[in-house]
């Protein structure tokens, strides 16, 4: 499979994921709970933290009188789906609604045409024990351990990209560039294949992707850490969400 064909397959899979019935565009609310039961808009019952990382729902009517959710467990209540969201030990209840207007109007993801020149060779340098302060779009802050830094050049300009380990393997980074707020969303995510044993890595900016918060403002996405914002425009990868009428 050629370069452009692989990119088109990736793009199509991204659009299927983003517009799925319970995909990111369907996130209706993120509700930070306490141990005292409280109502949550859109779903019946009262919801509270269990104290062990779970969420307890009571008085749910036809969905059952009591339910306790942990980890990746979900519960369908009518057309809506509720999930547990854990961010550094802070637990919230998320409500997904396939009838959310933005999800129903979702029609695709605009992207720059793929170009081989945006595949850049880099040198990966591990940084054992080093952390970066991560500030989320909703104001949340935490320290996250870095996997290392990738050093490379674009248009003769030396750049450094701080990256973390991705749960599914390889590296992941959050970056901003000169197109943000004009041609693209305010920042983007970037998956990076595991570097070779000698530290050689390839950064493919054609795979720069929109964060979940581009599809719903109820996500608390991490913003680029210090050093991962550049004035240089990166005209590659996904640009913006496209909504129809």
Architecture overview:
By secondary structure, the chain is mainly beta. The protein is 9% helix and 42% strand. Strands 16-15-14-13-10-17 form a 6-stranded antiparallel β-sheet, with no helix packed on it. A 4-stranded antiparallel β-sheet has the order 1-8-7-6, with no helix packed on it. The chain has a 4-stranded antiparallel β-sheet with strand order 2-3-4-5, with no helix packed on it. The relative contact order is 0.17.
SSE string, helices as H and strands as E: HEEEEEEEEHEEEEEEEEEE
Question: How far is it from the N-terminal to the C-terminal residue, by CA?
Answer: 36 Å
Average predicted confidence as pLDDT: 95
The structural class is mainly beta
**Beta-strand percentage range:** 35-45%
Question: Low-confidence stretches at least 5 residues in length (pLDDT < 50)?
Answer: none
The spatial strand order of the largest sheet comes to 16-15-14-13-10-17
Helix fraction by DSSP (H/I, runs of at least 4): under 10%
- The 3D shape can be described as globular
Count helical runs: 2
Largest sheet: 6 strands, antiparallel
Radius of gyration: 20 Å
- The total of beta strands comes to 18
Labels describing this entry:
mainly beta, globular, 245 residues, single chain, 6-stranded antiparallel beta sheet, 42% strand
Secondary structure: elements and pairs:
Layout: H1 3-18, E1 27-32, E2 38-40, E3 43-49, E4 55-58, E5 66-69, E6 74-77, E7 80-87, E8 90-96, H2 101-105, E9 106-111, E10 119-126, E11 131-135, E12 141-145, E13 148-154, E14 157-165, E15 171-175, E16 188-192, E17 200-204, E18 238-243
Antiparallel strand pairs: 1-8, 2-3, 3-4, 4-5, 6-7, 7-8, 9-18, 10-13, 10-17, 11-12, 13-14, 14-15, 15-16
